[in-house]
Amino acid sequence: MPEMFNPAGSAAEYIRDLFILVIAICFVIFVAVGGALVYFIVRFRDHNGSDNTEPPQIYGSKPIEVAWTLAPALTVFVLALVVVRSVFDLRGQEPTANDQRVRVVGHQWWWEFEYPEHGVITANEMVIPASDEELDRKVFLQLESADVIHSFWMPKLAGKTDLVPGRTNHMWIEANMVSPYFGRCAEYCGTQHANMLLRVDAVSQKEFDAWIAAQKEPAREVASAKPGKERFMALACANCHTIRGTRANGKFGPDLTHLMSRKTIAAGMVENNRANLVRWVEDPDEIKLGCRMPDMRLSEADVKQIVDYLALLIRLQLWKAENTLIEPDTFNELFTMHGTTMIFFVVMPMIAGFANILVPLMIGCRDVAFPRLNAMGFWLSLFGGTLLYMSYFTGEGLYGAGSAPDVGWFAYAPLTSPAYARGGSVDYWILGTTLTGIGTLTFGVNLIATIIALRAPGMRMSKVPLFVWMMLIDAILIIFAFPPLTAAQFMLLIDRKLGAHFFDTQAGGSAILWQHLFWFFGHPEVYIMALPAFGIISEVIPVFSRKVIFGYTSMAMATAAIGFISMGVWAHHMFTVGLSDGLDAFFSAASFLIAVPTGIKIFNWTATLYGGKLQLHTPMLFALGFLSMFLIGGLTGIMLAAVPVDWQVSDSYFLVAHFHYVLFGGSLFALMAGFYYWFPKVTGRMLGDTLGKIHFWLLFIGFNLLFGPMHISGVLGMPRRVFTYEAGNGWEIWNQISTVGAIIMGVGFLVFFWNLLVSLKSGKIAGDDPWDAWTLEWATTSPPASYNFEVIPEVRSRRPLWDLKHPEDPDWKYE
Q1: What NCBIfam families does this protein map onto (predicted)?
Q2: Measuring CA to CA, how many Å separate 277 from each of 225, 265, 270, 295, 696?
Q3: Are 168 and 183 contacting, i.e. CB atoms less than 8 angstroms apart?
């Protein structure tokens, strides 16, 4: 059973019970909405493609729309109350005389544990007294960091809490049985993040008292080990490590006084035995590449003498790490570039491309408001991406080039400071993403001006296509969200190059300040990428179901609500950093609230299918795939809005799955729907429908095989951003399934690119309106002339092309 659902302490039990409640609610919603979606697809599929009669149109229903607004609102309100109470219940515990206090200090990449009431300091393995039938014994942890942000995560005992430099956080754990428990650092902290493991041994009170007494004893003195002791004291070892009872009093490395009473070395990576101790002293990088322990270049005799000495300082158990396929530095560079590239240089440019082509056509104007500003934004984005990827190349004059940035796409301080990110790779990241952000700002300004000022005669805002509504709110979010990121990037660059201390925790700066600024951009950015997808789906589903969108007005209002609420949800990503209980409760409630307008959209799209004549061409398949994927991503988002649940899964593969179901399953499936839908308009040729359907099914199956199992591996305790993982946790099979899914997806994209090449060369001529659509872009030639329209059309309804085709039954009569 997953550790999260098999807790061994009261804190973890509380979180498990809340998690089960949230899962149950989300499961009911999934079955209801997913079941309706499947039923409508089966029931209303158009098996007779030659019948062009239009089904009865339903423009909306106020009672139904009010009902499915109030129902989710009431659900999330009750759930928010339960979650808020849980935050105060879990955080409101106070230590008693029976409880222990432990100071935990995170270092790159090891743990220091201090028992202040007993004067004991140890490393990497914490010993605590277990509760029994007579007494509950909680352990209250004081969490600090000596360098970058770490996170203490012990799934069977409690959720995670971050260790932030310059800040003291608190949490408590309790073990209700005598047993070893295993955890790790869950927050990305540099090269050896994957191997920053920890162990908690819960023992009886009697055993704990005996352990404390033993730890207070000074190091043993044995005559045979005297040469090794002298060699140890003569080297830099004595300046880094403490061995009580000797002159070794270093503070940079772990206290070694009772080294051999520990079961592991290297922060839990290998068993503490003589052979591994020799390897650790002789060549630390052999066990833990990139560790801070220097290579002393010791002779064989020196190593033997030092190990003889250290081996006297008693041992206990074993653990063994997996082999690695790639080096940790390379892996960290890859996931940094993956996240940065997909967000800034894949999804955002695709969104800008769709908007620049389609918005002027949809609103009946000849071009965007400021074409030259548009061009400047394009070149800034292109140059920003080029600058980022220049970090890979080696050559004179390219300061710091030769390796990509490895600080994550989120670039948490102080990991980005010169002390931890030497060279110029981070500078390339800052400058590249800053230029791209400025280019995106020009796009947002241009889009707002175009939509507000250049609509066709008669096209009031109540008649613009929903895609245009989504892009308008999207552009407004860009205007508000990108400047804080740009400001933070300039502050970081000034820190790195001019000696300022905005984020330097050693000089009074704040690591949390970066997180506030970054996520003030980062959470709206999720919706900046999602809203255009919503707009595409709102155009594709009506055309291929032959039904007008259900509840146009509520869809537009829900879009505005999403934009507004998304600006107040940024600390949803910061539940583990130690904000106040009140702030966590507020941002949790806001996170639940945003589910209401998002749910309205899903309900309205599903209702549009009802009674329609569903034509399952490739664009419609991708649109339906979007609905199912986004439904799953949205429901797992509700789970993450529950603060204690977030403490357990926020830095696990569960979050990786959620994120990709929202952005990849959401945005990319919708972008593919839009690509197949509007390709004929842009090129004048049709994409192959058969190859398109093969592409869809490969992508749909591959995606779910790739990311679906990540929910399970996350609940099993697998952290994200690790280049390797230990065996025996049940993660292997799910990673293997994910790998198969990735291969299937790769084949799917090969089919897509082949379809694209073949169709561009010899695809079927599309004509001006191959889908019998209703919006203005289909009223002009395919591809459009550079001026879009010979005569600017006049608009009287939300389906202007329908009005032109059917003057005897115009749509404006029914709106």
Answers
A1: CoxB, CtaD_CoxA
A2: 15, 8, 9, 14, 54
A3: no
